[in-house]
Amino acid sequence: MKNVFWLTTGIGIGFAAAHVIANNPKGQAFFAEVDAKAHEFAAAIVDGYKDREAELRATVADAEATIADLRDRAN
Question: For the packed helices 25-74 and 2-22, what is the interaxial angle rounded to 10 degrees?
């Protein structure tokens, strides 16, 4: 119970501090920079996921073609 109290207290203090910082022009610039970096990071993850998915789809297609070729040779 004590840990829950400190967790909620910390979250409340964090929100209050963020509100005070966001009202300052330097704070707004800071949050804009953090937001831009977070979006850049998320975009990099999405790009990596899509690249890996394309690689796996190509590998599966190659495997299917090889299996079909072996099946044709066996017949």
Answer: 110
Going by the DSSP 8-state scheme, the letter that residue 44 receives in this structure is H
Show the CA angle centred on residue 72, arms to residues 67 and 75, nearest 5°. 125
Closest CA to 22 of 11, 37, 32: 32
pLDDT tens for each residue of 8-54:
999 999 999 988 988 989 989 999 999 999 999 999 999 999 999 99
Q: Report pTM.
A: 0.61
Report the C-alpha gap between 36 and 30 in whole angstroms: 10
Nearest-angstrom CA–CA distance, 29 and 72: 64
User: Of 51 and 2, which is predicted with more confidence?
Assistant: 51
Decide if 25 contacts 16 (C-beta within 8 A).
no
